[in-house]
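Inputs:
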Amino acid sequence: MKHLFVFILLSFLPAVSKAQSQAMDTSNWETSPGVIGTLILVLIVASVAVIIMSAKISAYADSMKKKQIRKRNKAFDEELIGLTDPEIDEILEKRKAALTYRLPGNELSGTEKAFDEKGLISKVTNHPDNPLFDEKVSSTIKIEISPTLKKIVIYYLGAAIFWLVFGTFIGEYLGMKFIWPELDHVPWLSFGRLRPVHTNTVFWGWASLAMIGLGHYVIARTSNTNIYSKQLSKIVWILINSSIVLGNLCLMSGVNNGGGEYREYIWPVFLLFASGLALTLYNFYKTVAKRKISEIYISNWYILAALIWTVILVTIGYLPAYQNGLGETVIQGYYMHQGVGMWFMTFTLGLTYYYLPSSLNKPIYSYSLGVLAFWTQMLFYSLIGTHHFVFSPLPWWLQTVAIVFSMGMFIPVIAGTTNFLMTMRGSWNHISKSYVLPFFLVGVIFYFVGSSQGSFQAFRFTNYVWHFTDFNVAHSHMTMYGIICFLLWGAIYAILPKITGKEPRQVFVGAHFWLAFVGLFAYMISLMTGGTLKGLSWIEENPFIESVVLMREYWVWRAVGGTMMFISHIVFAYNFYIMVKEDKSVTKKTIITI
Amino acid sequence: MLNLSKNHKNLVLLSFWGYLILSTFIALIPATQMQGVKPLPGQPDLTEEQRSGLDTYVSENCMACHTQQVRSIEMDKTWGSRPSIPSDYYYSKKRLDFWRQSPSLLGSERTGPDLTNIGLRQSAPEWHLLHLYNPRLVVKQSVMPSYPWLFEEKDSLNVTKNDVVLNIPAQYLKNKRNKVVATQKVLNLVDYLTSLKQPDLPDETTVAFIPAKKKKTSDESAHASDLPDGETLFMKTCSACHQADGKGLPGAFPPLAGSPIVNNPDYSIMIQIILKGYDARAEYATMPSFAKQLSDKDIAAIVNHERSSWGNNASQITEADVKAIRDSVMTQTP
């Protein structure tokens, strides 16, 4: 499959970089490589869903089989109860004779007296059924970590989950506004002001806090030491949270930095967030520096680099000197693309390099592939921001560089995907055991699918059809949600029960998984279809309002998918509560004995 | 040498410098180069009112749904007569103030129409005011939010002479005695929106669209008429005011259905109005001139559509008829 993709890509690379004067042929849009590629990618996701579903169904079939066996046993029990007294007496007599039978005890030793002539035996015991060995060591899943680290992880995750629920509630509300534009007339809740509240909250609130929280654990654990300064971790927590509270208040009251996506917070507010990142970088760096093993685990490469790159990115994004006129647009393409690529993607990959193998209790498949993916991620991801402005007045060479290197993105993506899938190989039975692997699997598949789809979308032709339409919204949810959220959830479900000793109920984790997954699928497919039709309607130069009217049903389906996603987050928040709540009366041990 | 897997300092430094160099090449240098762009000759700067309008545009985040870039591809011809060029943004994309940066006017989504040329397409402030108060007053299927907080509801007794009063159908008002009055804020916003026009390029320069290869349409439509589809053009150009059903909007835009001018066998007044605009009747908004936007073919198609729809039944005209009137009318002093 992968070879096929590389082949498809290589064969179209020349076409992509062709001169600008070439005319756009829109007659066979269905057969354009980007469109076909995207369709195949969507099918991959669908088939993964089918695989997970069938694993779950087969687990269900197993449980049905067990039920059958229990039924048979019950029938046997009833048969016993139906026996008459003489029959029972006869059986019991036989059994008594069997039980009272004793071996003489000298079958192997013979009858000769033993004597230790060479003085080899030092201790003789007459109790071979020693309880010390008899009792099985109960396999505790709990990992002992320092209470401070545990507290840090839980605080970060707790705040993250609050922002997830809040941010997606806003998103849900915005989705409704496409169907009922007159939902409210409150300036603070108008679409333009709320849209960045949704995006910034889930970006800087949910995903970033969750990543940093999970990162603390990885950094400390793989360096075999304590976090350098827990005080810094506390300060960062306050800085980031207050940045989001203040930023959202600003946006809702109409103070917007200029509408560039993901830098809508004005600089004093975002400075809080950025200094949070810089302090985290310092804290993590110092922790890695005092590690007790010589190697720096690959996760820490990604995590440290994500922090370094994002600090640079945010600084460049906010400094004003070169941002008049289209300078701002150059920076906007650079910033919004790499906000996703250098921060969320890089950091989350780092987390996956730790949590995925550790949850399967095996090492990562290949360290070198991880390193290859790391450097190619830096090289290619950095250069492709302008593919958000194809056909715009930005310099044509900048657009071409972006498109060509978007193809280059296949190298880190395929390297990463291969690495993760090969790590999972041989552990597929974990899919039916818990939901940790399904979360990771979906995240990894979306990593491949979402990133490749993004590269396809950078083709000049696909851009022609899809740019400015709702397809973009589908793509960003496919990646930020499909990749980042699913991988983060996998990591959270993998680690939290181990450090708190409390497991959420499988049925609720399942509810979270399926609602999020099916919801995302509905969301994606409806906007991809609608977006394509919208683009085609524009190409045919129909009146603009027709493209608004035709979107209506797709917006409805988007809202349905969005609602499922939102409900899944509430279930997730409940699961989190179960995993972290302090309950002194019922410990894990008593649950087992009951 | 570098021993990256064991030397954390080298690892961090290499990531730092590697990324900074790449960023310089791909972001800092091109962005700095864009600072050298000069405005076109005769390109107007924004007035103080228009800047304040741009402020409102940013603070309501209109960029979330509206782009301001005509891409260099054929389908974007709808939004401007030429592709956008860096100079177009010389005045509008400047740092807003100490707190806020240069606005991201180019946008990334077209949930609503592109606004590069909205001042030319829709120059009547009355239309913009109604549209901002409640978009569905003028475009029934619109999903744009209403902005009632940019207006003031006043008791009709308190309305002064200087107030700009909106002509809102009674069913949209909570209190029938009230009048909706535009605030200075929204007047500035409308001033900004109507100022959005692509500046002309100096004579010798041209920027071309990348042409699209169209599907070959079947031959039958070719000999039926060589005019474009009048209904589509009407929907794109005229229906925002005169409405799809040709009934207009009472108190704002006159009806075309049953209009004596439209049904007049002498089509010259009608074509003159389209070419030059019209502001003879106080109860209606000013109609802008369409001479620049529409070709003779387009106008003929639109006129024919209007003269044969909604119960109208007047004779059809040809491209040559429009051309004759354009030649005689447009040579006169404007």
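Chain A has one domain: 143-581. Flag for discussion at group meeting.
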